[in-house]
Amino acid sequence: xxxxxxKPSRDICQRGTSLTIQCQVDSQVTMMFWYRQQPGQSLxxxxxxxxxxxxxxxxxxxxxxxPISRPNLTFSTLTVSNMSPEDSSIYLCSVVxxxxxxxxxxxxxxxxxx
Amino acid sequence: xxNVEQHPxxxxxxxxxxxxxxxxxxxxxxxxxxxxxxxLGKRPQxxxxxxxxxxxxxxxxxxxxxxxxxxxxxxxxxxTQPEDSAVYFCAxxxxxxxxxKLTFGTGTQLKVEL
Lengths: 114, 114
Hints:
- By secondary structure, chain A is mainly beta.
- Chain A has strands spanning 4-7, 10-13, 19-25, 31-37, 43-49, 56-57, 68-72, 75-80, 89-96, 104-105, 109-113.
- Chain A is globular.
- In chain B, strands 2, 4, 5, 9, 10 and 11 form a six-stranded mixed sheet that branches. A five-stranded antiparallel sheet of chain B has the order 1-3-8-7-6, with no helix packed on it.
- The N and C termini of chain B lie far apart (41 Å).
- Chains A and B meet through β5, β9 and β10 of A and β5 and β10 of B.
């Protein structure tokens, strides 16, 4: 299966700042996604990262808060903007390598906002 | 949108016993149902999945059953071992047209006691 590298693995940030998380895959993949996992909770889809076009956001998530880029088939970034303590979560990227293949997750970025 | 309910939220079994986790989904268009295992501080890892064209799938000590009519699916772990202790998430999605977006259940904390 695809090897997914996510950076940074963790960070502690000040409120009001922004952080960009990177997701790099070792092969071209069909689909890339960004999820949020709040402490002790399940995973919630933020958006589908579309190659060469604007991401598709789920209800409750907006581009101004979570801008996403996907310049090619192996790389995507998620920015968490104007952070507040409520944004403290694990952010995970996932990929679907190809048709009818399962979705695999990166190790996640553990984000704490002070 | 899709809604996935998962029960129980916690499950404690003796080593060697069986464990069963149940999920229900709301969208009859969902046709793909993976199960993920997440150990503390680690990424969710796919352990088994099933598509709507089959009713049961087995992989060694792990099996999944699907009842499309009732819209529920279950994970069965036999001969449990301490290393099975983790949080298990069920999920549902539509492949081919649904964008492969996963909707997760709330998770089950499984503890296998010696």
